[in-house]
Design a protein that fits this description.
258 residues, mainly beta, 4-stranded antiparallel beta sheet, 2 helices, 10% helix, globular, binds 2-acetamido-2-deoxy-beta-D-glucopyranose
């Protein structure tokens, strides 16, 4: 009983003002599959890089940690697609502005699929995320299509959309809301959205999170997942505007009652 508690390292942290990503859990079976220091020097353009991490054969991603190592912690890091519970993640790293670089430590952990990813309360997922008897070829195809689609969406317009996971038949909308904040000169607006709200319970497993940027001209904010997410029962979403601009997002969360 207690040994299990010791084995499980639950990470519920969210870091106040930085854009660090702390997603998922590590346990005794987790292995670090990716660990890199990503650094970019200042340049006349905004530095920007995409980090793709894929698991090997039978593993799914169990935790993603991106830590801004610079003193002012104002680099941007967000998950573009994939994530915890899936076999692939695409992380975008950006410098805050021109003439600025960044320095991020990126660590990704994986756990064998089907062993379940344990978390506080003893709940687990893994089987719900990926039924074992699903045809592997089809599953990989679906994942590839999902990744390509989200990359295509990202590339074809200037909206800062974030789509994680994929809603399928049987999933229901458990949360939908617009989040609008007006811009003020020189000010960065930030909103944290927690689902469920503190003190409330959500019994559904989150299957997909779609965050749509309604500002199509590139002036919109950036969404990130601060904690929780697909495969879990809670999520904390952070929306951060660009300096001097507002934000206008539509957030839709799909879940499944199991
Ligand atoms: C898996 O799907 C592929 C493509 O649809 C098919 O060719 C293959 O026979 C299937 N394999 C099994 C074990 O069902
Ligand atoms: C990761 O997987 C995707 C599709 O699943 C593939 O297109 C990409 O080349 C892979 N990247 C690496 C670095 O293995
Ligand atoms: C936010 O986006 C919605 C959908 O595009 C739009 O109807 C609404 O007017 C926008 N609000 C602001 C304040 O720009």
């Amino acid at each position: 009983m207690y040994s299990k508690l010791f084995v499980v390292l639950v990470v519920y942290l969210s870091v106040a003002e930085s854009n660090d990503i702390i997603n998922g859990y590590t346990n005794a079976r987790s292995k670090k599959i990716y660990s890199e220091l990503k650094e970019a020097g200042p340049a006349l353009w905004k530095r920007d890089e995409e980090v793709v991490v894929n698991t090997t054969y039978n593993d799914v991603i169990s935790a993603i940690y991106v830590t801004d190592l610079r003193e002012d912690h104002n680099g941007e890091a967000y998950i573009e697609s994939g994530g915890v519970g899936l076999r692939s993640v695409v992380i975008r790293l950006k410098s805050p502005s021109i003439l600025r670089g960044y320095k991020f430590q990126v660590d990704v952990y994986a756990t064998p699929m089907g062993e379940g990813l344990f978390h506080k309360g003893g709940g687990y997922y893994g089987d719900t995320q990926y039924p074992r008897n699903v045809n592997r070829t089809n599953k990989m195809k679906t994942l590839c299509v999902a990744i390509l689609l989200s990359l295509a969406v990202f590339a074809s317009c200037q909206s800062h959309d974030l789509a994680i996971g994929q809603a399928t038949y049987g999933d229901v909308i458990i949360y939908k809301a617009d989040e609008v904040k007006y811009g003020f000169p020189l000010i960065t607006r930030t909103t944290i959205i927690q689902y469920p709200e503190p003190g409330q319970n959500n019994y559904a497993i989150i299957k997909a999170i779609y965050i749509k940027d309604n500002n199509k001209d590139g002036s919109g904010g950036f969404p990130t997942i601060g904690a929780g997410g697909v495969g879990q029962r809670f999520v904390k979403i952070k929306l951060k505007s660009q300096r001097g601009n507002g934000l206008n997002f539509t957030i839709t969360i799909y879940g499944r009652y199991v």
